[in-house]
Specification:
It is found in: Mitochondrion. This protein is α/β, with parallel strands linked by helices. It folds into two domains: about 1-155, Quinone Oxidoreductase, Chain A, domain 1 (Alpha-Beta Complex); about 160-320, Rossmann fold, CATH 3.40.50.720. The protein has eleven helices and 17 strands. Helix 5 (about 160-170) crosses helix 6. The chain starts with a strand and ends in a 7-residue tail after the last helix. The model is unreliable at about 1-25 (pLDDT under 50). The protein binds NADP nicotinamide-adenine-dinucleotide phosphate.
C-alpha cells in the first residue's frame, strides 16, 4: 500500500468532497474535524494493488454531525469483495474501504444531544468508509455502546455475530435439545453460531477443512461449546449419521463454503431439514443429489377415523441469508437492541472469538 498526499483536484469525485468545497466558505469559527488518514481505492481490483493511504484535510462538523476518532475497524471478506468490485452492493470508487468499526466521539455539532466527546460509538446499521482515522457523519448514524466492551468485539459486532444470531432465529424453530450442522466452523460467523446455539441449548456439529494442527483447532472450537468437530476427510463415508453420538439429527444446516463442504452439511441434515447458505468461500457451486430432493422429506402421522396415514409434510429446503437485505427493511431499532444483547454477552465473556 502506498502513502501519498492527495490534491484537491484528484478528490473531485470523492464522497467527502462536499466538505472540502465547504471549507472555502466556512465561517472562521466553524467546528472542524482533525485531518484524517484513509484507506482509499480509486478503482476496483486486487486490494493490494488498488488501495492507498490518503491524507484528508479537516472538514466542517455541521450542527447535527458527530466527529468520531476511529479506534478499530476490521477487514471482512466482504470488504475485500467490495474493493474487488464483485460484491452486489458497493460504493462507487473512489471510496474509502471498510464497513464496520468502533470509534470514540471527538467532537459534536451544536444540535447533537445524544452523544458527547469520549463516548464510544459504532455505525449502526454499518456504513461504508470506516477505514479512516476520523469520520464526520450525522448523529443518527452512530449508536452509543458500553465503553468497557473489548475493542475488537465492539468493532466487529455488527456483521458476523448479528448474522449468526439472525440465522439461528429466522429459518427453523430450534428448541433445547435440537442440533445444527455447519461448515467453515472456524470462521467468526461459525464461532458465533456455536456459542449462540449453545446458549439456546442447541448442539452443534462442525466441519472444518483438513489442515496440519486439526486437533488443536477442534479443541479450540470445543472450548467455545462445539459438540462435535470433523475434518472434511473424516466425513468421506457413506453414513455420517453414525457420528452423531447423542446429538439429534440436525434440522438446520449452515453453508459458508459451497462445493463438497456443502454436500457434507446436507449429508447430516435430517429429512425435511433446511440448509442456509450465507457465504461461498470455496467459490464452488452447491451440488445436491437428486435423491435428497426426492426422498429427504419428513412424514407426519395423521389419524383419521381410527385409520393412520403418513402425510409428507416438508421436503428438503435450500435457503439463503444476506444480512444487508435483512437490514434494508426498517429495522434500525431492532438491530440496535440485538447489538446491545450481543455486546452484553461479549462483555460477560459469553461470546468470544478463538
Ligand atoms: N450473507 C451474509 O449476510 C454474511 C454476513 C457475514 C459474513 N458472510 C460471509 O461469511 C463468510 C465468513 O465470514 P467471516 O468474516 O466469518 O470469515 P473469516 O472469519 O475470515 O473465516 C473464513 C472462513 O472461511 C474458510 N475458508 C476460507 N477459504 C476457504 C476455501 N477456499 N474453502 C473452504 N473454506 C475456506 C476458513 O477456513 P480455514 O479456517 O480453513 O481457513 C474460515 O472458516 C464470508 O464469505 C463472508 O462474506 C456473509
Amino acid at each position: 500500500m502506498k502513502t501519498v498526499g492527495l490534491s484537491l483536484r484528484s478528490l473531485s469525485s470523492f464522497p467527502r468532497q462536499r466538505c472540502f468545497a465547504r471549507n472555502h466558505v466556512c465561517a472562521f469559527s466553524a467546528l472542524m474535524s482533525p485531518p484524517s488518514t484513509a484507506v482509499v481505492y480509486d478503482q476496483h481490483g486486487p486490494p493490494d494493488k488498488v488501495t492507498r493511504l490518503v491524507e484528508i484535510p479537516p472538514v466542517e462538523i455541521k450542527q447535527n454531525e458527530v466527529c468520531v476518532k476511529m479506534l478499530a475497524a476490521p477487514i471482512n471478506p466482504s470488504d475485500i469483495n467490495r474493493i474487488e468490485g464483485v460484491y452486489p452492493v458497493r460504493p462507487q470508487p473512489p471510496a474509502v474501504g471498510g464497513y464496520e468499526g468502533v470509534g470514540q466521539v471527538h467532537a459534536v455539532g451544536s444540535s447533537v444531544n445524544t452523544l458527547s466527546p469520549g463516548d464510544w460509538v459504532i455505525p449502526s446499521p454499518p456504513s461504508f468508509g470506516t477505514w479512516q482515522t476520523y469520520i464526520v457523519k450525522e448523529e443518527t448514524v452512530w449508536h452509543k455502546i458500553n465503553k468497557h466492551t473489548p475493542m475488537e468485539y465492539a468493532a466487529t459486532v455488527t456483521v458476523n455475530p448479528l448474522t449468526a444470531f439472525r440465522m439461528l432465529q429466522d429459518f427453523v424453530q430450534l428448541n433445547s435439545g435440537d442440533a445444527i450442522v455447519q461448515n467453515a466452523a472456524t470462521s467468526i460467523v461459525g464461532q458465533c453460531i456455536i456459542q449462540l446455539a449453545r446458549h439456546q441449548g442447541v448442539g452443534s456439529i462442525n466441519i472444518i477443512r483438513d489442515r496440519a494442527g486439526a486437533d488443536q483447532v477442534k479443541e479450540n472450537l470445543k472450548k467455545l461449546g462445539a459438540d462435535e468437530v470433523f475434518t472434511e476427510s473424516q466425513l468421506e463415508k457413506k453414513n455420517v449419521k453414525d457420528l452423531l453420538g447423542s446429538l439429534s439429527e440436525p434440522a438446520l444446516g449452515f453453508n459458508c463454503v459451497g462445493g463438497n463442504a456443502a454436500t457434507l452439511v446436507l449429508k447430516f441434515l435430517r429429512n425435511g431439514g433446511t440448509m442456509v447458505t450465507y457465504g461461498g468461500m470455496s467459490k464452488k457451486p452447491i451440488t445436491v443429489s437428486t435423491s435428497s430432493f426426492i426422498f429427504k422429506f419428513i412424514l407426519v402421522c395423521v389419524r383419521c377415523s381410527n385409520e393412520i396415514f403418513f402425510h409428507p409434510l416438508q421436503d428438503l429446503s435450500l435457503r439463503g441469508f444476506w444480512l444487508q437485505k435483512w437490514m434494508s427493511t426498517d429495522r434500525a431499532k431492532e438491530c440496535r437492541n440485538m447489538i446491545d444483547h450481543l455486546l452484553d454477552l461479549m462483555c460477560d465473556g459469553k461470546l468470544k472469538y478463538e
